[in-house]
Amino acid sequence: MDPLHQDRLRVVRWPWIVALLVIFGIGVALTVANGWQAHAKEFLNLLVRWLHIIYGIAWIGASFYFIFLENALERHNVRPELSGNIWTIHGGGVYYLEKYKTAPPKLPPYLHWFKWDAYLTWVTGFLLLVIVYYSDPRANLLPPGSSLAGWLAVFIAVGSLVGAWLVYVGLSRTPLLHRPALFLWVGGVLVAGVAWALSQIYSGRGAFMQVGAMLGTIMAANVFFVIIPSQKALVRAAQKGEALDPAFVSWVQLRSRHNNYLTLPVLFTMIAHHFPFTYTHGANWLILVLLFAAGVAVRHFINVTEQQHHTTLKTGGAMPYLLVVAAVLALGVFYLTAPKGGKAALSGEPVAFEEVRAIINTHCHVCHATHPTQPGFASAPAGVMFDTPQEIVAQAERIKQVAVDSEYMPLGNITHMTQEERSRLGAWVSQGAKGPVK
Fold it and tell me: Is residue 312 over pLDDT 70?
């Protein structure tokens, strides 16, 4: 068997691919015949998001695992051809692993390659961008009232993905690559600049997701254009009995480590849309940068700790101050995103539930209903419905968070909720969020 041509996905033969295409065709036919376009889009969102999480977990998990191996290798008293070895225990079994400096004198008949998890994470992530943002840029990508053409917004977004990779490649070809701290600072400043620029073009949610997609593109492109081709070169050299420069291996390893440091920032952007208080803030780009910095600090602490063979915090060798830095950054975000003005006054004109319900029926119920009437919604977002007084009262604090404090809802203010209406909702919640008078 040729180690270069072994692939976990080779089990997917043409008959199975044809079968999958037929099933997809049936789904398309059912959608067209029954007018299920909104439902189909929502279902695709679910399916692709699920696959994105599955492959993302596999890819990031592999990154964490192999960086751990590299950090924790025992490098003393090993054979000359080895970089190190490690004993581990998991799932009731004891494992012994050895790492070669380049390649073993004779390659085994089978090598396990780690690439499709990265590729499919990016593919499913891009499909999600198309489904949620690019297919209808007015809904989630652009802010309310933007004069930018939808096609141009998408063009800029896709171009930024390519541009991010090209800028990273350019930086990697400078002496900065061998000065990690300076490389990090320059990269951080560039990310901050891009985050600010995109926040001027897109909605907060769209800007957050676009920055995350740019970092994810750098990571996936590192695998596709650098890491995998380099590993293939290593295998070919070993097959021919040629020596490979260990410096070349170290260069590839550095790209892998870059990916490792980007994992926590990218993971944040994957969950950020659940927390509107982050991306609806006036300085949302700064919030993003601060949380990115906290993620990088935590990741570096973990890596240094592993290199110290799990040195305890008491020794100081594991750079525990990084955890303090991350905590201070998180505290800063907590303070910046907190509702300003203290507790809302309870005094003033009482707001009757009937007035609140009228506002919600006008601006919220079109989406948040058992049967939404807003085009493009087949079901209530997040399962939140305002069909009954009990449902409205139960969601009072959430209503205040998203419609009053962050003003994230209605989405894109598509129903034109006024500031006066938001104030009335906030006053109702502050006065105890009382239901209808019986």
Answer: no
